[in-house]
Fold each of these.
Amino acid sequence: MYKLGFVFCSVLLILAIACNSPVVPKNKGYGAVQFPAKQYQWFKETGYPYSFEYPVYAQIDNSVNYFGDTKKAHAWININFPQNGATIYVSYRAIQPHQLETLVKDAYTFANNHNSKASYIEDSVFTTENGVHGVFFHIGGNVATSYQFFLTDSVHHFFRGALYFDTTPNEDSLAPVNAFLFKDLTHLVNTFKWQ
């Protein structure tokens, strides 16, 4: 009888302590993201061997510095999306004789570097109406970059881009932003021209 009374008092004490905790509602999902209307402008500057359309809500940064080496003279740029905390990192190479295979292999290596976290990697070969050839990589999972691509004329020019976010990768929370920026990436690729 003594044990039953002790257990009963203990349960009442635990319930009294537990019931005094404040109620904190949990979020049932991620907050809605507001996106601007799609509008584009041309990137066509002297000294750059390419041009393309990019969104008006993006900013071109041509003061790229890579390990202390300023890359403006090499036509490297970053396309920043400040509202989304995202950047398309762009590199450009003038193709030297017998170098195309190495540049293509490097692009595949950069995409495959995400294999440890990726649930899949899809590559799509394409040619645009402007005669630009390329490969588009879609990388699924909690990876640092969901989209990478390269463009080339196979003789003189090689242009590579990769979309990164300034946050810890989370495929679910980044899905709406990835879908929104995917349209901008495909627009950039489809309007791309060599100068």
Note: The mean pLDDT is 87.
Amino acid sequence: MKKLIFLSLTAVTLSSCNPIIKKLYGIKKPDIENRELITKKANKFGLDTTNIVSVSSADFPYIMKRVSVPNASIFDAQGKYVEYRLTDTSCNKGLFDFIPNLNLITTYNKPDSLSLQQQWPKYRDLNGNKLSLPEPADFYVLIYWNVWTGKLNRDHVKIWEDLARANKNCRVKVIKVNLDIQDYWEQEEKEKWRKAFRKR
């Protein structure tokens, strides 16, 4: 339900007839972003800038079909996906309780459909370079975010990151996956996605 509300809110605020709501949430139309702009926005929202990755243009459609923003995916030390939602229709609200309670004792629901090893090659640094595997951890929390959702980054992404950092039950590694249109992409891909987003 919260996801539906967010999508509706996004659709409404991106329209020209609601400039007040758009300004209030700091939501803007998606645009092409680069390392400098993404880092600047991350600093504005109080986010750690050392753990931000992006998505290659080839894999961007795959990721966008499977995640909403802001949201997160959780993986265990072996790279197995950990399902935090109680049902397929549950919203991201569950992350506020799930992240601080991650531990090495609880038995988690781990569907076999997704692994960190499968996902990792899709990610790049903010200059478009391939990444080394992340350092060992008990859990990996991949938080999906973008610049244009404005205040939601402070209300969700920063809180989730802080909750993971404060978790003393285990080692939690946060990786923030930026889902903006990246300046390092091929020109044709950049323009294609900018036009697609601005039609919404």
Note: Residues 13 and 172 are 34 Å apart (CA to CA).
Amino acid sequence: MAAPAGTLSPPTLRQILERPDVWRGDALAGTRLPGVPTGFAELDGELPGGGWPRGGLIELLPICDGVGELSLLLPALARVSNDELSWLVCIAPPYSLHAPAWSAGGVDLSRLLVAGASGHDAAWACERSLVAEGVGAVVAWLPDARSTVLRRLQLAAENSRTLLFVFRPALCASQPSPASLRLLLAGEGDQLRVRLLKRRGNACATPVLIAVQRPVPLGHALAGSSTSAPAARRLSQSAVA
């Protein structure tokens, strides 16, 4: 029976399966935008789009500071700052950024912005950065973010081309999350053990082991020094609006 004139025909199964938020249970989802290569082929092969997905919240859950969590991000951040000439925004880092480590990882420090904030202000800065022109990646530390805040960030990221990485404690792994990608990170000798807790696609039962570069002790590109990265700019809330 034909649909009445002026009405839309229901989508076909093929059209439904072509949507990036729909996938078969035995395969990875498609993506609206190409992924940004992580710099680690073994991890790219496990991610929808073949890299860090744009258009979604990427939640990173290290079991402790210094397992190599920022070294995991440096190849992609270097690509964004150099190849795409986009800004990188770091929000509420728990320690001062260690400029030599970021520079050694290939990041253009002249494209790095640092926003000191906490609580609701940090989440607000994330949302504003996602809609700011020229921002290619946001890295934020939101240890106490509630599910409603994470949901807002996920929705904001869906309307953006910006990479959004949010660090939260590993204890949050047992809590539900609206993030499109969740990774539990742990050190294993000279490698980083990456367990994919959630991705848009079939489950990944086997952790991915990655040999990350650790340019500073503990593999952490953060330092306890009170001196911030000299080439980075520290922004107030109004500066990222």
Note: Helices lie at 13-17, 41-44, 69-82, 99-104, 119-131, 147-158, 237-240.
Amino acid sequence: MKFPKQKVLITHEVNECLEREDFFGIFKMKNRILENADIIDKKILGDLIFSTFIIGNFDDAVLIYSELKRKGVETYSTLYYALLSLIANEDLFQAASIIKKSEILSAPEIKDLHQDGGANYSNLLPFADYHDSFTLLLLIVNYIKGIMRETSGMKEINRDLLLFRFFDLVNLVYEIGYPLKIIQELSSAMKIIFNLSI
């Protein structure tokens, strides 16, 4: 077993970086964090993939997710930022593959919330007030599945379509009455994914 001092040091450094909004500082700790993934709190692992996404290192965010999954760690947060990164990379086929292989999303009580026939944004609203990471993940899963259905015919997946549908998603959750924090999170993600300055 690794010496717990490493856990304390890493946690302290990550929290200090978060206070300073030094997301690149957290990304630079990537190897240390991943090497100690078995003893570190899942929140810190989430902070790593979040920071990697925030600085626009989308390929690295996906690799971090894959490495954590290999180590048996999959959380709403790690899955959410991996999927957002794949949207940014316009790689919805890999995103669909991750969704299909995800243990979290395969759970029967969750599957209904993203399968055809059961999936719609209104069904997720009751979760939004008390479980925002779960809600955000399912919103993005449904967004990806919707695009995959839409593009199974003639349309190709391109940046304009992804952006247009993301605007649709943000508008829809606003109209349905989702909490402001969900709308703000999706809007922030959209700005990073599509490099918008609005």
Note: Residues 30 and 48 are 7 Å apart (CA to CA).
